[in-house]
Design brief:
The structure holds two protein chains of two kinds.
Chain A: H1 15-31, H2 38-49, H3 65-100, H4 103-109, H5 114-161, H6 166-178, H7 183-209, H8 213-227, H9 230-238, H10 247-259, H11 268-273, H12 280-305
Helix pairs in contact in A: 1-5, 2-3, 2-5, 3-5, 3-7, 3-8, 5-6, 5-7, 5-12, 7-8, 7-12, 9-10
Chain B: H1 6-34, H2 44-59, H3 63-79, H4 83-96, H5 101-121, H6 127-151, H7 156-166, H8 178-194, H9 201-210, H10 217-229, H11 237-250, H12 256-264, H13 267-278, H14 290-300, H15 320-326
Chain lengths: 310, 327
């Protein structure tokens, strides 16, 4: 059996330069699909979360606490949903769309290494997700800042009315500030981005051997869904034997643990919303895990895509 | 290489990488759990209670989002006075967001106050059931709050809430051992104070609880003296009255009137504050020497008989059975 090979002219310029050009093109391509329209929806959600104030819980010391927590939960929840959907769908769309538009042939006919092409496409999607998250984050910060300012004023007025000591008022205000815009909250937004980056890399890998956008999308969501169980499967496998689990169950847990990414590790966002401080160490470790997946999946995507015939 | 084999090779590479990353991920997960950045897994029943859709959303790292929606649902149940649903909703909410104080506070308050008060006021139900349910809801509220404290032992507000509940004369009567309530309340206020974020009233509230515990009067007196010596900010009518009663407990032989005037500043203020304190029969505060001091001050102030508070009838002590019958 003979293998057909395309002989390319040597690539010119730097890898990074080519990747950036392709990333810019992919980004423009996605922006033209009017993906930023969802920001209007996000704005409505963020602003609405500021107005759903349940009257029965408004004890003097906890005033505004529920709304602040609500703004964070709704905003970061929406960011998570949008980032995951965009990462999967946008990545799944890119390769088939380039084939359909015949732009892929034009690009690959030029001295562009296929790795640069894939990395550029992935970078374009990640750039889009990043920009979207930054915009959503800014909106959340704005709404949160307004609400926190209101609660701070109310706390001061209440503290004075109840003759609290200046230290007590300061302590109460610090508590309100700690539940508002913090670096930990920004760390949570970063965790949302890192998770989206992994799922985009997974979608890229699937799209290199998939024959349809729908297949890539479905597999992408499945991987995301099962990836949230990965840590449970790993724990089950590592602690199996203690309760006499069956061989098949152990094998299934092992396969899930080895093959799928661990998305549960990024659920630190819940703890941050509840007021837990996120350390730089934790951010670094999450970044390392996400980096590993993105690099490995991109290299494997190139491995499949490198001599694929179109 | 055949294109068909490539996905298989990819899978093998991913699995091989998985062998390397598994211990690292397990370590990071354990570390994040230890530092509180990863929450403990909610029980299996939680998923059953919230349904598949919410369960899937919660699983995707949006537990606090699901908790906010369930809180809205709990609000609807509250407006409809469906207390069992309110209880179920908050039990689920705190499993999803165990570190949000607001949910613990809202939950215990709904149970111990709103649900209990509804049993008290809803005369359409049989008396015995209302009484029984009133008591049950207060007990449930306390249990829920104590669970919140176990989950958040460093939260001073939840400790203060426990102290508040167990010294509330409308609530401690629901418990058989009220001395245990006061003792637990005093310890709860101490724990709240130890967190370093407690408001100024917490230390005084600790004294108000401790003063009611039989057998801990010496401890209460030491605390009262310490608070008194901190300055006029703590010289509230309650604190002065309790300090007076505890001083009499320590030395019952001294002249009551002179001691009261020394403590309160003037006979008029001593009489006014002690008279008000004397009326607080429902709270089970120490009353050592208060009646004697009032009688002596009344003589000293030459008050006519019709203005003598010591001769007026006292409000009856807390008695839930009577409250229900009067309703």
């Amino acid at each position: 059996m003979t293998e057909s090979r395309t002989i390319h002219a040597p690539a010119r310029g730097s890898h990074i330069g080519r990747v950036l050009v392709i990333a810019g093109h992919a980004f423009t391509q996605l922006v033209r699909m009017k993906v930023f329209y969802f920001l209007a929806v996000f704005a409505v959600i963020a602003i609405a979360s500021n107005f759903i104030d349940l009257p029965q819980h408004a004890g003097p010391e906890s005033m505004g606490a529920s709304v602040i927590s609500q703004i964070k939960s709704w905003s970061i929840g929406t960011m998570t949903l949008f980032s995951v959907v965009i990462s999967i769908v946008a990545t799944a769309l890119l390769l088939p769309k380039d084939i359909e538009d015949r732009t892929l042939y034009t690009i690959l006919a030029k001295p562009v290494p296929r790795f640069d092409y894939l990395a550029g496409k992935l970078a374009g999607v990640l750039f889009l997700v990043f920009i979207s998250l930054v915009l959503m984050d800014l909106l959340m910060i704005g709404v949160l800042h307004m609400r926190v300012s209101q609660v701070l004023v109310q706390t001061e007025v209440m503290g004075k009315a109840m003759e609290w000591t200046p230290q007590s008022i300061e302590s109460a205000k610090n508590e309100v500030l700690a539940s508002g815009v913090t670096w930990s909250l920004q760390g949570a937004v970063l965790a949302v981005f890192l998770r989206a980056a992994i799922i985009a890399a997974v979608a890229l890998l699937v799209s290199t051997f998939s024959t349809s956008t729908l297949f890539t999308t479905v597999i992408g969501f499945l991987v995301y869904f099962i990836g949230n169980f990965q840590a449970d499967a790993r724990e089950f496998y590592l602690h199996s034997g203690e309760a006499g689990e069956g061989m098949l169950a152990r094998l299934g847990a092992l396969v899930i643990s080895l093959v799928l990414p661990d998305f549960q590790i990024f659920n630190v966002i819940d703890a941050v919303i509840e007021g837990q401080a996120m350390t730089w160490d934790a951010v670094g470790k999450l970044g390392f895990v996400a980096g590993y997946y993105v690099v490995v999946f991109t290299i494997l995507s190139w491995f499949i895509f490198s001599d694929k015939e179109f | 290489m055949k294109q068909a084999w490539k996905p298989v090779i990819c899978l093998a590479v991913i699995a091989a990488g998985g062998v390397l990353r598994m211990p690292y991920e397990a370590g990071v997960t354990a570390e994040l759990r230890k530092t509180g950045l990863l929450m403990p897994k909610p029980p299996v029943e939680t998923s059953e209670r919230i349904g598949q859709t919410f369960s899937a959303v919660a699983l995707g790292g949006l537990r606090t989002l699901v908790a906010t929606f369930l809180n809205l649902r709990a609000f609807t149940s509250f407006t409809e006075k469906k207390w069992d649903k309110v209880e179920a909703a908050y039990n689920t909410i705190v499993e999803l967001a165990p570190r949000t104080r607001y949910y613990w506070e809202a939950g215990w308050h709904h149970m111990a106050y709103n649900a209990a008060a509804d049993c008290f006021t809803d005369t359409s139900r049989p008396l015995y059931r209302r009484k029984d349910e009133w008591r049950t809801w207060i007990h449930k509220g306390r249990a829920f709050l104590e669970r919140g404290i176990r989950n958040n032992p460093d939260d001073g507000t939840l400790w203060s809430d426990l102290g508040f509940m167990l010294t509330d004369s409308n609530k401690f009567v629901a418990f058989r051992d009220q001395q245990e309530c006061f003792s637990t309340a005093a310890d709860a206020y101490r724990r709240a104070d130890e967190t370093g974020n407690a408001l100024g009233y917490v230390r005084r509230a600790r004294l108000y609880a401790l003063a009611r515990v039989k057998g801990r009067e010496g401890e209460a007196l030491a605390l009262a003296r310490s608070l008194y010596s901190e300055g006029t900010r703590n010289h509230t009518p309650s604190l002065l009255s309790i300090l007076f009663a505890l001083q009499v407990w320590e030395n019952p032989l001294a002249n009551m009137g002179d001691r009261a005037v020394t403590l309160f500043g003037t006979p008029e203020r001593a009489y006014q504050d002690l008279s008000n304190y004397w009326q607080r029969t429902r709270e089970k505060l120490p009353m050592n020497g208060v009646a004697e001091a009032m009688a002596e001050l009344e003589n000293r102030l030459n008050l006519p008989e019709n203005k003598r508070e010591s001769l007026k009838p006292l409000p009856p002590p807390s008695n839930p059975d009577r409250w229900f019958e009067e309703k």
